[in-house]
From TrEMBL:
Transmembrane segments: none annotated. Keywords: ATP-binding, Ligase, Nucleotide-binding, Purine biosynthesis. This is Phosphoribosylamine--glycine ligase. InterPro entries: ATP-grasp (IPR011761), ATP_grasp_subdomain_1 (IPR013815), PreATP-grasp_dom_sf (IPR016185), PRibGlycinamid_synth_ATP-grasp (IPR020561), PRibGlycinamide_synth (IPR000115), PRibGlycinamide_synth_C-dom (IPR020560), PRibGlycinamide_synth_C_sf (IPR037123), PRibGlycinamide_synth_N (IPR020562). It comes from Algoriphagus aquaeductus.
Length: 429
C-alpha cells in the first residue's frame, strides 16, 4: 500500500515508525513531517490543511490509505472534502467526518452529545457574550474550584481552573468579552470541577465496532510535581496501575459502548480514533473531554505496546472491518519523556544543534519539533522537540531505559521533567 500520513509532531513520527514496520506498507509519505519522519519515510512539503494540494498528491502518487494525525484538518472537514471528490470518494481514510470531529472542535457539542447518550461527565452550562450576566450569576451558585473551557480549539490552552469566585468571574469576562482565546472562546463551557486521577483511554472505531487500545497517563504541567503552566504534555506512562480491570470494565460499559452507540444512532460518520480524557473519581470514570485523534505524547507510549500489525488496524478502521481485526497488546511498560526548548510553553529560541546518541538500548527517539538546518545539522524547531520512549517488563526498567537515552541527548537550553512516572512508582510501594 501507498500510505499518506498527515502531521508533523511526535505523534506522527510514532505513527510512521509503526507503519513502516508493516509488510503491508510499500511507500509512506508524511506531510509535512519532521526530521525524524524524513529518516524512515518521504516527507512532502504540504500543509495538513491544504485540502486541494492533498487531493492532487493522492491522485499523483496513487495513495491507497490516508491517515490523519492532528485534529485541525479533521475539524475543518478534510474527510468530507475528499469524499466529495469523484476520484477519492471511496478512498480509505483514518479520521472522522467534520461532524464527528466536532466532538473535539466544540466543547459544548461534545457535552451535549454525552448528555444525550448517557455518558458520565461533569455538570455544566454554556454561555456566550450576550449571556455574560447569566454566566456570572451561575458562577455565584457553584462550588469551587470551577472549570472554564473555551468552546473551540485553543491549542490545548483554553481550559482554566479557577480557585475563587473573583478569578472565575474575571476569567469568564476575559474569555467572552475580550476574546482571550480568539474565536475559540466566543462560547465558554462552565463546568463542575472533578477531583481524582486523570488518564487517557484510546479507542479505535469504524463507527460500529471498536477496539480499546492501551490506556496511558500523561503529565501536562511544565514543572516537576505537576507545577507551573500547562503544556502539550511532558511525558506519559502506559499501562496505568490505577486503571485496573474493574475500572476499565466500567470505562467500557459506561463510556465506550454508549459513545460508539451514540455515533451510530446519530448517524455520525466516524472512522478513526477517539481519545477519551477521563477522571478516575473514587473508582468511577467521568469523561473530561473527547479528542478525535490519538493524544501526544501518549501515542509515543501506547504504540510500542501494540504487537499486532498496525497497518492492518488502520485499514480495518478505514474500511469498516474492525470486527475482523485481532488486537494484540504487549504486557510491557512503556514510558515517554518529552524534551522541550528552554522557555516553553512561553517564548523560546530555535535553531540550536542537537546531539543524539549513536545507539539506544531499550528506547526509541521520536522527533516532534525538529528540523534540519542548511548545514545538515539537526536543530530544535518547536517547543516540544523530542519524545524518548523506554520499554521494559517493569515500570522502573522502562523509566531507566528512557532516562538513560535522555541523558545522552543535548542542545542549548534543553529541558525535561525528571519525575515522569514517579507518582505511579510510588503507588506500587
Amino acid at each position: 500500500m501507498n500510505i499518506l500520513l498527515l502531521g508533523s509532531g511526535g505523534r506522527e513520527h510514532a505513527f510512521a515508525w509503526k507503519i513502516v514496520q508493516s509488510p503491508a506498507c510499500s511507500r509512506l509519505f508524511v506531510a509535512p513531517g519532521n526530521a525524524g519522519t524524513a529518516e524512515i519515510a518521504q516527507n512532502v512539503k504540504l500543509a495538513a490543511t491544504d485540502f486541494p494540494g492533498i487531493h492532487q498528491f493522492i491522485l499523483r502518487e496513487s495513495i491507497d490509505l490516508v491517515v490523519v494525525g492532528p485534529e485541525e484538518p479533521l475539524v475543518k472537514g478534510l474527510v468530507d472534502f475528499l469524499q466529495s471528490q469523484p476520484d477519492t470518494v471511496n478512498l480509505p481514510i483514518v479520521g472522522p467526518s467534520k461532524l464527528g470531529a466536532t466532538l473535539e472542535g466544540s466543547k459544548d457539542f461534545s457535552k451535549r452529545f454525552m448528555q444525550r447518550n448517557g455518558v458520565p461527565t461533569a455538570a455544566y452550562e454554556t454561555f456566550t457574550a450576550d449571556q455574560i450576566e447569566a454566566g456570572l450569576a451561575y458562577l455565584e451558585k457553584q462550588s469551587l474550584p470551577i472549570v472554564l473551557k473555551a468552546d473551540g480549539l485553543a491549542a490545548g490552552k483554553g481550559v482554566l481552573i479557577c480557585e475563587n469566585l473573583e478569578e472565575a468571574k474575571s476569567s469568564l469576562k476575559e474569555m467572552l468579552l475580550d476574546a482571550k482565546f480568539g474565536d475559540a472562546s466566543s462560547k465558554v463551557v462552565v463546568e463542575e470541577f472533578l477531583s481524582g486521577i486523570e488518564l487517557s483511554v484510546f479507542v479505535a472505531t469504524d463507527g460500529k465496532s471498536y477496539k480499546i487500545l492501551p490506556e496511558a497517563k500523561d503529565y501536562k504541567r511544565i514543572g516537576e510535581g505537576d507545577t507551573g503552566l500547562n503544556t502539550g504534555g511532558m511525558g506519559a506512562v502506559s499501562p496505568v496501575i490505577f486503571a485496573d480491570s474493574d475500572f476499565m470494565q466500567k470505562v467500557e460499559d459506561r463510556i465506550v459502548k454508549p459513545t460508539i452507540a451514540g455515533l451510530e444512532k446519530e448517524q455520525i460518520d466516524y472512522k478513526g480514533f477517539v481519545f477519551i480524557g477521563l477522571m478516575n473519581n473514587n473508582g468511577n470514570p467521568f469523561v473530561i473531554e473527547y479528542n478525535v485523534r490519538m493524544g501526544d505524547p501518549e501515542t509515543e507510549a501506547v504504540l510500542p505496546r501494540i504487537e499486532s500489525d498496525f497497518v492492518g488496524l488502520l485499514t480495518a478502521i478505514a474500511t469498516g472491518k474492525l470486527d475482523q481485526y485481532e488486537l494484540k497488546i504487549s504486557p510491557n511498560y512503556s514510558t515517554t519523556v518529552v524534551m522541550v526548548s528552554g522557555g516553553y510553553p512561553g517564548s523560546y529560541e530555535k535553531g540550536f544543534p542537537i546531539s543524539l546518541p549513536e545507539k539506544t538500548e531499550g528506547s526509541v527517539i521520536f522527533h516532534a519539533g525538529t528540523a534540519t538546518n542548511p548545514e545538515g545539522h539537526l536543530v530544535n524547531q518547536g517547543g516540544r522537540v523530542l519524545a524518548i520512549t523506554g520499554v521494559g517488563s517493569e515500570l522502573q526498567e522502562a523509566l531507566d531505559h528512557a532516562f538513560s537515552t535522555v541523558n545522552q541527548i543535548s542542545w542549548e537550553k534543553a529541558y525535561f521533567r525528571k519525575d515522569i512516572g514517579q507518582d505511579i512508582l510510588n503507588l506500587t510501594k
